[in-house]
Amino acid sequence: MDCRGDGAEEVENERSSSPTGIQSPATDRNPSPPPEAGDAKSGGDLDAIGDTVYSKHWLFSTLTRLIHMVTEHSEVNSEGVMQLPDDDEEDLCRVWDMAMDKDVAGFLQEFKATDILLGVIAKSRCPRLTEICVGVLGNIACFPDTCLALSQNEDLGAVLLLLLGDADPPTLLETSRLLLTCVSQKDVCSLWLQRIRQQTSVPSNLLFIMCSSTNTDLLEKVGELLDKLFDLDEELMKSWITAQQSEEEEEEGQSRLDVASCLLEAAKQLRSESPNGLEVYLHALQLLTTIDEGIQTLAAPDGPGKAVWDFVCDVVCEDLCQPTDLPVVLQEQKSVLVQAFAVLQALYRCQDQWCSRSDTSLPLIGTVLRVLQYHSEDKDEGPSKDGTKDEQLQTLAEITAEFLADICIQIPTATVSDLVKSGYLTEKTALTAAGSLLPNFKTSFQHLQSMLSETDPQMADMVRKRFPV
Fold first, then answer.
1. Which residues pair with 48 in a beta bridge?
2. Residues 6 or more apart from 265 whose CB is under 8 A from it?
3. Contacts of 254 (CB under 8 A, 6+ apart)
4. Could you write out the DSSP letters of every residue in 188-226?
5. CA-CA distance, 411 to 414, in Å (whole number)?
6. Are 270 and 279 a contacting pair, CB within 8 Å?
7. What are phi and psi of 302, to 5 degrees?
8. Is the bond preceding residue 35 a cis peptide, omega within 30 degrees?
9. Is the C-alpha dihedral spanning 362, 302, 214, 347 positive or negative?
10. What's the mean pLDDT in 247-264?
11. Which helix (H) or strand (E) holds 287?
12. Nearest by Cα to 222 from 282, 187, 171, 180
C-alpha cells in the first residue's frame, strides 16, 4: 500500500546542493559568475547560460581544468590517492550547485558533460571528487529531457551501479540519490530496472549498506531506492529474496544476508534518528508481505519474522501510540501506522510456524482498540470542512479492524480478563471493537463476546444489547 506522492514531486526533492566541505559563502548560495564574466558587460548576454547569469566560459574552463587535473594525476601516480585542492573543490561545488538550474543542466548535457564526468569518475582516486561528479550528474538527472539523455549512456549506467560497492559513504549517498531520481522518471524507469536486474552486485551491495552502515542520510536514501524498486517491480523483489535464499543454502555456516533482516537492521538504526526513514523501511517490509516468497521468509521457523514482529510491536507501542496521546498524535502518525499494522497483521498469521510464538501484548491490543476508537469518533464528527473523507485514516481503520479480527478469533479468556483489569478493554472500547468487527468479522465478534461473558458479564450484556447477533 503506497502512500507516497507523485513522481514529479519525488524528483524535485532529489535535487541536492553540494555539502559545505569548504566553509565558503559561495557554497551556501547560487554561484556568482567569475570576475572576468562579470566585467565583460558587452558580451555578457552571449556568455550567459540561458536566462541565468552563469558564465559559459567559466564552466568550460572549470571542466577543462578538471580533465587536465585528473589526467595528470593518473599519468604521474595512477594508484595513489589524489588530494583535491581547496580552490578546485570550491569551483566544482559551484558547478554542482549550478546544475540545479534547468538551463545549466541542459547546457551541461549539450556540452557532453556526462561523458566528461564519467571519464573523471573512472580515473578518480579522490573520493571527494567522485562524490562531486556523481552529485552533478544527480542534479542533471532531475529534469526529464536531461535525465533521458543521461540514462541512455550505457557506460555511465554500468559505472553507477558498480559504484554501489564503493567504500565512501558520501559517494554512496549521491549514487543512491541519482539512481532514485532516474527510476522515479517514467520515461527511463524501465531502462534502469532492466540494468539493475542484470547487475547481480546491486542487491548484495544495497543489503550490505543496510545491515552495516550507521550513516543516517545514506540509510534513508538506500531505503527509498530499494522501496521504490520493490514498489515498481514485484518480479525484481521476488528474485532478490529467492537469490539470497539460494546463496544461503550454498554458503552454509556463513553469516546470513537476507532482505528482511537487512531491512530490520536499517530500521533499528533509523528508529530514533529519522521517523521518515523508519516509515520507508516499514513500507518496504510491508511490500515483502504482499508476495508468497516474502511471507515464506518471514514465516520460516529460524527466519527473521519473530525479530521483525518484536521490533514493530515495540515501535507501535513505545514510539507511535502512548496511552496518554491526544487524538492529534494518532492523526500525525496515521501514515506510518498503516505500514506498521499491515506488517503486524501479516506476521500474526505466521506465528504458528515460528520456533517460539510471541504472545500478543496487552499494550498492542490496547493500541489497536485506541486507533479504532479514534476513527469511530472521527467518523461521528462527519467529513472535514472541505467535505472530503480522510482516505488514509479510513485505510488505517480497515487494516486495524482486520488485525483485531485475527486477534479476537482465538483470544483466550485470560487475555480478555487482563485487558479489562489493565483498562484497555472498557465499555467504550468494547463497543468500538464490536462496531469494527461487525458485520464483516462476525465469528471473531462472537468469540470475543463469549470470552467477555466469562470475564465481565455486565460489560458483555451491554455489548449484546447494542449489537444483538
1. 55
2. 210, 211
3. none
4. THHHHHHHHHH-THHHHHHHHHHHH---HHHHHHHHHHH
5. 8
6. no
7. -110, 20
8. no
9. negative
10. 70
11. helix 275-288
12. 180
Q: Which residues pair with 55 in a beta bridge?
A: 48
303 closest CA partner among 259, 365, 334, 361: 259
d(C-alpha 349, C-alpha 451), whole Å: 21
Any idea what DSSP says for residue 467? Answer: S
Residue 216 grid coordinates: 543516517
Distance of CA 92 to the CA centre of its chain: 29
Q: Give the integer Cα–Cα distance in Å for 301 and 54.
A: 61
Cell of 143: 529534469
Determine how many CB atoms are found less than 10 A away from the CB of residue 182. Answer: 27
Other C-beta atoms within 10 Å of 347: how many? 23
- Dihedral pair phi/psi, residue 48, rounded to 5°: -75, 145
**Coil, helix or strand for 55?**
strand
Average pLDDT, the chain: 87
Please report which helix (H) or strand (E) contains residue 41, including its range.
none
Residue 140 near residue 99, CB atoms below 8 Å: yes
pLDDT in tens, 373-410: 988 887 766 665 566 778 888 999 999 999 999 999 99
Residue pLDDT, tens place only, 42-89: 455 678 888 888 999 999 899 999 998 888 887 777 677 888 999 999
Question: What kind and span of H or E run contains 74?
Answer: helix 56-76
Residue 127: other Cβ atoms inside 10 A? 17
151-180: pLDDT as tens digits: 999 999 999 999 999 999 999 999 999 999
- Please determine, for residue 186, whether its predicted confidence score (pLDDT) is greater than 70: yes
- Beta strands of 359-424 (E only): which ranges? none
- 59 near 95, Cβ under 8 Å? yes
